[in-house]
UniProtKB/TrEMBL annotation:
The chain crosses the membrane at residues 7-25. This is UDP-D-xylose:beta-D-glucoside alpha-1,3-D-xylosyltransferase. Its EC number is 2.4.2.42. It comes from Magallana gigas. SUPFAM superfamilies: Nucleotide-diphospho-sugar transferases. Belongs to the glycosyltransferase 8 family.
Length: 375
């Protein structure tokens, strides 16, 4: 009798161990399968899935160590944002996590275009598509703001599992790797939460000092097209409540919506703002009269911002020249062989226009980067 009990006991113990081993092996293979599919497909996760990395430690680590880039896409800005993303991934070595807030009807076209890129490009980034949205109570925010224009103000409350990110308008192109702009984070002091560039360099053509009827940052205001945000710090600050308060107080006096709001915020919290110079947000204003951005004159622009539709229209054709070169590049040949010559040709063709006269500003950083790559 006693023997039988012991025998039964051992039998169950052994079965349990065997089952456990089977379970472990199974888990391992699942993980492998997951990892393989991750690297073979362009990585898209919809907003219904959890807004975060996979449960794998590797995923979490990758998430933490990646560069996070965010854009807000509405109306006819779909194609522009694809070219923007292309410029980001072509020059950057680090893994990029891209957070795209877009109107629902644009989702499938964005997906189709990104998913059509070759594997050697898509393996270096993943993207997450969200509908434009608001933090809770969302009805209240919606009544206060227009959907797309103000989305960037709420990113800290929506992407709560992201520490820091680079937000850019869709009319932006990168002429140097994202690691470069990202490295400004390490220069923030302990109070600084956001980095932006001045809205202008010279008093007599600037906007805020001449026309603004509300408080703004510094002498000439700041531009909200290229923003580094430490979301962790913003979430710990009074950002959201202050923004609402300032909106109520100044909305009748504002012209540029959320950019004005950010100017008002940093007027009252100047110690929270890190200013990077104009070559990190280079606009037509910097070259349409005389070339006023010193850093760009010297070494070229890092980030182009073709506001007032200059990536598409004929107003400052140097911007469109760069845009077209990125748009046409088809991932086939090396950048040095096909992209760079095309960029230089496009710029040469507009060398007589005001911004085209300083064409080196639009090509120097790229040429420098590709030359280093060759070595
Ligand atoms: C976007 O690009 C596609 C293909 O390149 C083109 O058919 C479409 O008209 C473009 N859309 C806009 C809004 O420019
Ligand atoms: C953002 O701020 C938090 C809190 O101070 C800090 O731990 C984190 O390293 C910062 N992120 C970056 C990218 O500098």
């Amino acid at each position: 009798m006693r023997r039988r009990v012991i025998y039964k006991f051992w039998l169950s113990a052994i079965s349990l161990v065997v089952l456990y081993l089977l379970y472990v092996v199974r888990q391992r293979t699942d993980q492998n399968v997951q990892r393989v599919t991750l690297t073979e497909k362009p990585r898209e996760r919809t907003e219904d899935e959890r807004l975060g990395p996979t449960e794998l430690d590797n995923g979490a680590k990758l998430w933490r160590n990646s560069i996070h880039l965010s854009i807000v896409v509405c109306g006819d800005r779909g194609n522009e944002s694809i070219t923007l993303i292309k410029s980001a991934v072509l020059l950057t070595k680090s893994y990029i996590v891209i957070h795209i807030f877009a109107e629902g009807e644009l989702h499938s076209s964005l997906q189709n275009q990104l998913n059509s890129w070759p594997h050697h490009i898509t393996k270096n980034f993943e993207y997450h598509l969200y509908r434009t949205k608001y933090p809770e109570p969302s009805q209240e925010w919606k009544l206060l703001f227009k959907p797309c224009a103000s989305q960037r103000l709420f990113i800290p409350s929506l992407l709560t599992n992201v520490d820091s990110l680079l937000y850019v308008d869709t009319d932006v192109l990168f002429l140097s790797p994202l690691e470069k702009i990202w490295s400004h984070f390490s220069r923030f002091n302990s109070y600084q939460v956001i980095a932006m560039a001045p809205d202008n360099e010279v008093r007599h053509t600037a906007w805020y000092n001449r026309f603004a009827k509300h408080p703004y940052y510094g002498e000439l205001g700041v531009n909200s097209g290229v923003i580094l945000m430490n979301l962790t710090r913003i979430r710990a600050s009074t950002w959201l409540t202050s923004i609402i308060k300032y909106h109520k107080e100044y909305k009748s006096k504002m012209t540029y919506g959320d950019q004005d709001l950010m100017n008002i915020y940093f007027h009252f919290h100047p110690d929270e703002l890190y200013i990077y110079p104009c070559e990190w947000n280079y606009r037509p204003d910097h070259c349409m009269y005389t070339s006023v951005c010193e850093g760009a004159n010297r070494d070229g622009a890092h980030v182009l911002h073709g506001n007032r539709r200059t990536m598409q229209n004929q107003k400052q054709r140097a911007f469109k020249a760069v845009y077209s070169a990125f748009k046409e590049y088809d991932f086939q040949e090396k950048l040095m062989i096909s992209f760079l010559p095309m960029l230089l040709r496009n710029l040469e063709a507009v060398a007589k226009t005001p911004c085209g006269k300083v064409g080196h500003i639009f090509s120097k950083r790229v040429a420098q980067f590709l030359n280093q790559e060759e070595k």
